[in-house]
Amino acid sequence: MRCLEIMKKSVECFTTTDSAMDIARRMRDRNIGFAPVCGKDGRPIGTVTDRDIALRVCADDRRASKTRVADLMTHETVMVHDTDEVTRAEELMAEHHKSRIMVVNDHEKLVGVISLSDIALRESDQRFASTARRISEREARA
After folding, report:
1. What per-residue string of b and e applies to 24-57 under the rule 16 or more CB within 10 Å gives b?
2. What are the backbone dihedrals phi and psi of residue 132, each rounded to the nearest 5 degrees, phi first?
3. Which is it for the CA torsion 33, 2, 111, 68, positive or negative?
4. In what order do the strands lie in the sheet with 79-81?
């Protein structure tokens, strides 16, 4: 099965100049906790999560309306191509301890996101359990 078959396609990309407040509101309105950050060319350059906002804005008592995504985003980009097999997404998620991964096309532009729950809905219980265990290993070590 290919990544394009299970990825979420309606993905909004944020920019480094968006404010934390704008992103938090859009995340709330769309009921999402993860968002890609893209450059002007549509290529992913990082990610922002609701946890990033909580820890890097709220915990530091920063003004959300004045804090830009560039100041709180995670710069690591873990991606698969839409034509890659889902097993490749699973491998990268486990290797990088990520429960979500961005999907790009042949031009490296964002076309979707795959989450652990997308894989869970498609895979056998044993295989999903193995992937989930490998992703969560970092939390077990903490």
Report:
1. beebeeeebbbbbbbeeeebbbbbbbeebbeebb
2. -60, -40
3. positive
4. 79-81, 100-104, 110-115
- How many C-beta atoms lie closer than 10 Å to residue 98's C-beta? 20
At 7-23, the pLDDT tens digits run 999 898 999 999 999 99
For residue 82, give every residue at least 6 positions away whose Cβ sits within 8 Å of its Cβ, in sequence order, or none: 2, 3, 4, 7, 103, 104, 105, 111, 112
Contact by Cβ (8 Å): 116, 99: yes
Provide the sign of the torsion angle of the four alpha carbons 140, 23, 114, 110, taken in this order.
negative
Residues 6+ apart with CB under 8 A from 130: none
pLDDT band at 122 (very low <50, low <70, confident <90, very high): low
Res. 140: pLDDT tops 60: no
Asked if 7 and 106 touch (Cβ cutoff 8 Å), the reply is no
Is the model's pTM score more than 0.85?
no
Is the pLDDT at 119 greater than 90, yes or no?
no
